[in-house]
Amino acid sequence: MNEFDTQKDKYITFKSGNEYYGIKIEYVNEIIVYQEITEIPESEDYIKGLINLRGKIIPVVDVRLRFKQKPIEYNDRTCIIVLNVNDIVVGLIVEQIAEVVEIQEENILPPPSIHNTDKVQNIFVQAIGKVGDSVKLLLDPDKLLNDDDLTVLEKVNDENEVEGE
Amino acid sequence: MAEGFNTEGMLDVYLFENGQLLEQLQEIVLEQKDEECFDEDSINEIFRTMHTIKGSSGVMMFENITAVSHKLEDVFFYLRESHPQNVPHMELVEHVLEVADFITNEMDKLQNGQQADGDATEILASIDKFLNSIKGGKREKEKIIEKNVHEEPKQFYLAPMATDASRFYKIYLTYQPDIQLANVHAYKIVYSLKEIAEDLLFYPEDILTNESSAEEILENGFKILLQAQASEEELREIMQEGYDLKKVDIYECTGNEFLQGFDSFGSEIRIDLESSVEEIEAKAEAEEGKEKAKEKSKEKPIAPGDFVIESKGPGKAKKLAKDNPKKTEKTSFISVDVNKMDKLMDLIGELVISESVVLQNPDLKVPGLRLDNFHKAAGQMAKISTDLQNVIMSMRMVPLTNTFQKMNRIIFDVSRKLGKDVEFEMVGEHTEVDKNIIEHISDPLMHLVRNAVDHGIESNEERAAKGKTEKGKVTLSAKTESGKVWISVKDNGAGLDRDKILAKARKQGILDYTRDDNSYTDKEVYQFITLPGFSTNEKVTEYSGRGVGMDVVVSNLQSVGGSLEIESTPGQGSVMNLKIPLTLAIIDGIVMEVGNSSFVIETGVVKEFVGIRDNRLVQEPNGEEFIMIRGEGYPVLRLGEWYDLKDYKADTEDGMLVLVEVEKKTICLLVDRLLGKQEIVVKPIPEYVKKVKGLSGCTQLGDGSIALILDAAGLVE
Fold this sequence. Notes:
The structure holds two protein chains of two kinds. By secondary structure, chain A is an alpha+beta fold. Chain A contains five helices and eleven strands. A six-stranded mixed β-sheet of chain A has the order 8-1-2-11-10-9. In chain A, strands 3-6-7-5-4 form a five-stranded mixed β-sheet. Chain B contains 21 helices and 22 strands. In chain B, the strands form five sheets. Chain B has a six-stranded mixed β-sheet. Chain B has a five-stranded mixed β-sheet with strand order 6-8-9-11-10. Chain B has a five-stranded mixed β-sheet with strand order 20-12-13-22-21. Chain B folds into five domains: 8-135, Four Helix Bundle (Hemerythrin (Met), subunit A), CATH 1.20.120; 167-296, Alpha-Beta Plaits (2-Layer Sandwich); 338-396, Helix Hairpins; 398-581, Histidine kinase-like ATPase, C-terminal domain (Heat Shock Protein 90, 2-Layer Sandwich); 586-716, CATH 2.40.50.180. The chains are: A alpha+beta, B alpha+beta. Chain A binds chain B through residues 36, 38-44, 47, 50-52, 54-59, 88-90, 145, 165, and chain B through 346-347, 349-350, 353, 596-598, 642-645, 683, 685-690, 692-693, 695, 698, 700, 704-708.
């Protein structure tokens, strides 16, 4: 119980493009440096492949591709955040890890309406967190990893880039 | 005992241990169900099993289980000590199984957090009846004798092997008044005294058969007359005053007093003093004679209520009527949490990787280094880690014996209920299969075996009418061949009725109307019975006929990569062949490289490797390619193209063709190069990634990189 208390309201933030994103720290197993990825043929393009995490093979997702942003070259700042969402362990490739911040509930706002924008990332954004002057986009890890919301995404974007199961 | 005692941790252990004991018990029982009687080892084993279960259940305060196991223990105690003749063996087998089922059932309840509240009275009563019946008329006579204590001294002697050093003792045991099952406690003492006793008698002597003797012991104490070479201290050592024994009184006495028996203890039994000495001595002699006779033929007539405790004569093996020399060596097992095993496997995998990191460390490449000793040590280390890998892999392999034994039980039950006379035979039950797979095939096997007995084998009358002389028989066999386990369930029953199946299939609209009935091969027709909702049995029985079953069998098998083939000869029976991969965890594979990716394919399906010198590929207009090898054309699959990989060698002359044969179909895979052959640990592709056609898993190679495992069957499609 104590553990949850200390993790409460804490978010790990990372930078992707110009925005900072946050994920609740309780979903995060660990952060590792980028390592060689084995590609899996015929899989969704945002699934970069598999990595060997100390004997455990886990899939990795490139967050930029997931957001339908242009991929960038990986460099030595590229990190993999290992997430555990409902026992599904997935690595998330991010450009750069920022920091761990504490965002109180009163500073969390509902996400902007989906209709005003055609940006895909909105369906992944659960809420907006204010930290001082800056704003972090708080992600819903479940949506981030799973394609259940694909229909919504397709409706919104009317595009077929992502192949569902 | 301790109320409110925390039994939670103990419950797990209790359930686990007794579960195993019961499994063993059934195994023993079924192994000898067709014999005339149990052999001595089995009787002892069953007795011990029941004793252990009784003991632990007592501690856990599961009274019904305690009572039932106690009752069965009584039966086997009687069998063990009195060697009765003409025990209805089948009835006994049923009683044992009944008890085992009862306890299993209760334990299931406990496992699910319920109370063990099953009603044991019926079982107790039936076993009681059985026990009385095997004791036969003797029992009644005994009762009469009990009433007429004065007429016949109730002392039963073994040949006293008195030597000068022998001493005679009268022992008087007083139990704590609140002790449960005092008779059992008393028996424990008798049992341990037996080890040293030259002669031993006790009162009340019906401690194990008569529940009420417990009260008598509590009231009047338990009396033992003992002739032994042990000193009083040694005796006290055996009968330690403890939580159960309140007081132990030991009096040394003379041989004469000894022969006078219990009367000097008190007035409960009065013995006709005048006749006793001669009579007893005569009796003792007679017993001695009998003892010798017994060694030759085991047909010792047992006197009424004769409760002989045999002293351990030198070289005298106790034997029952049936001497069964077959004694299977029991391997001792320790059960380990599968998660720990997986963890160990992962760790070993990592060890292998770090090993290669060390051995191929760039630091070693510095010119001018002398590495002779390093390489020697490295070689040794590599050997050990290979051994380690082999051990962990073999640890996952479990013989099919247990699974087969369970089937034995099913056949026994079903055939008894259906009144069919069915024999069971196991072949190759020691074949080892990965534990995960065993878990998956247990249910399918059960269905098949049930079907075989229920549908396959005809009733006794039908068999007689058909002139089949031999008994109905179900054969379960297992063998390993070309990296697969083949399990077959064979019966010598009626076989499948092709016409009936076809008719039924037509009714259900499965048949293709454009095809003639005769155009269906037998195999195709038999395959219909694996479709959901398909049963040719007219009437639904307790065991089968609802049409669920075969489709479940097939889907279960498919989930572990297995398949089912059906063969049948009308009138002679049918064979269900299950083909199952040996293991899901480790396969022997060929590692190959295409572009930047590594792939592994199971060695078993690879027919040959062909290097192509000149361009012998034939391209069809639709883009499909063929290659002619020794006059035969095989389709070619360019892996790099197929999976849209980067940097693969487009020129076939640079690559290597791998001929893969699955179920008589052959294709050629074009890969860049072969890396080698190795045992690989199969890991599933994480579920998060959707299933890719032709890939069955992934694995970690020695250098820590990941290779994808090709599913040959999927590729051939």
